[in-house]
UniProtKB/TrEMBL annotation:
Domain of life: Eukaryota
InterPro entries attached to this UniProt entry: Papain-like_cys_pep_sf (IPR038765), Peptidase_C19_UCH (IPR001394), Ub_carboxyl-term_hydrolase (IPR050185), USP (IPR028889), USP_CS (IPR018200)
SUPFAM superfamilies for the chain: Cysteine proteinases (SSF54001)
Identification of the protein by name: Cysteine proteinase
Biological process terms in GO annotation: protein deubiquitination
Signal peptide interval: none
Listed Pfam families: UCH
Length: 382
């Protein structure tokens, strides 16, 4: 839990939003509608954030109240067994999104399925994203939200169906090649290759075309029968904050295992053009890493830590003091970093990476974050 909290607290725009108190008006407006989390998650996150900012000693803070709040909303995190950090992150983001959602402005105009089907993909994507936001946008959706386009093309008649879903993180597989047989030395019948892979390979695997056939054949709406088809997944709206979950924990019917391969990922200049639709605009967003949640140990027990690019105590947002993260996002203004190389406020901490363990924080060589990386946090460069 601590590692995900540390990564979340390293998310500067989210922290600025809480620091400026804007969350209180959003939570109040939402309380009238009754959120699932009933404001508890935002309250608890704000309290934890305030405690972090106002502590006067160097001793560690206990996030007990925050933890108990999360457990009251998501009981699966109770107890002392190892919980999944990415699942924990999703619950925090879902809870904050529910609590901070602004009420829908007005009902979206609805269109018939046939009408939507006749639109271009670009128009469908815009329509889908508008509908998600009109159902209730939040700082969480605006910062972390992206849009995935899933298409299925019938091999027989070439009809292509499309669905659009928003995401707050991408769960990408770690591709395996050349499994070796090790029947005597391993509890597992097959051991996976330990060869390092690149993040780009993981993203390629995530969006690799999938052939639907046999028992998984596609029921084509035009052919009106099961047919062979190709399923394709692409990002059609890239988020401002891109969270990539490396699927290290693999399960089958009888057991599970941890995939230990080192994943080589860039600390800056991550481009995801290989998983994006080529016709979206801008075509090739660029991301820089700001936090990593890492795991050491096995499937059944281990330890999570965070590596964060620590910049400062929470500085003002770009532009005027009165501006807010929310309004910046709403107006699609650039999320430019408030820090520049010439900034007098924070020059020394500009590129400092820290290891955040349960009870201490220490400077670290960023290369240490590579081994065991489990969840990567990237910020889009503007
Ligand atoms: Zn068909």
């Amino acid at each position: 839990m601590n590692s995900i909290v540390q990564c979340t607290l390293a998310t500067e725009y989210l922290v600025s939003y809480f620091a400026q108190g804007e969350w209180e008006s959003d939570i109040n407006s939402n309380a009238r509608r009754g959120s699932t989390a009933k404001g508890k998650m935002a309250q608890a996150f704000s309290s934890l954030f305030n405690e972090t900012c106002t502590r006067t000693s160097s001793t560690a803070i206990s996030p007990n109240i925050f933890y108990r709040t999360v457990c009251s909303l998501y009981p699966q995190f109770s107890g002392y067994s190892q919980h999944d950090a990415q699942e924990f992150l999703r619950c925090i983001l879902d809870g904050l999104h529910e609590d901070l959602r602004v009420p829908p402005t007005k009902p979206s105009k609805t269109y018939s399925e046939a009408e939507v089907d006749s639109w271009s993909d670009e128009k469908k994507a815009r329509y889908s994203w508008d509908r998600f936001r009109k159902d209730g946008s939040s700082i969480i959706l605006d910062l972390f939200g992206g849009l995935l386009h899933s298409s299925i093309t019938c091999h027989r008649c070439k009809y292509r169906s499309s669905t659009f879903d928003f995401f707050m993180d991408l769960s990408v597989p770690i591709p395996q090649s050349g499994n070796d047989e090790r029947p005597l030395l391993s509890f597992s019948r097959r051991s996976r290759s330990q060869k390092p892979v690149s993040l780009r390979e993981c993203l390629d695997e995530f969006t690799a075309d999938e052939i639907l056939d046999g028992s998984e054949a596609y029921n084509c709406a035009k052919c009106k029968k099961p047919v062979k088809a190709t399923k394709r997944l692409r990002v059609c709206k890239a988020p401002d904050l891109l969270v990539i979950h490396l699927k290290r924990f693999a399960y089958d019917t009888y057991s599970g295992e941890k995939i230990e391969n080192v994943v080589d990922f860039p600390f800056s200049n991550l481009r995801i053009d290989n998983i994006m639709r080529p016709d979206v605009s801008p075509p090739s967003p660029v991301y820089d890493l700001y936090a990593v949640c890492g795991h050491s140990g096995s499937l059944h027990g281990g330890h999570y830590v965070a590596y964060t690019k620590s910049l400062s105590p929470y500085p003002p947002l770009p532009g005027s003091q009165q501006s807010s993260v929310h309004s910046l996002v709403e107006s699609s203004a650039p999320l430019a970093s408030p820090w520049t190389p010439d900034s007098p406020a924070l020059p020394a901490l500009r590129e400092t990476w820290h290891l955040c363990n349960d009870s201490y924080v220490s400077p670290v060589n960023k290369a240490e974050a590579v081994s065991g990386a489990y969840v990567l946090f990237y910020k889009r460069r503007r």
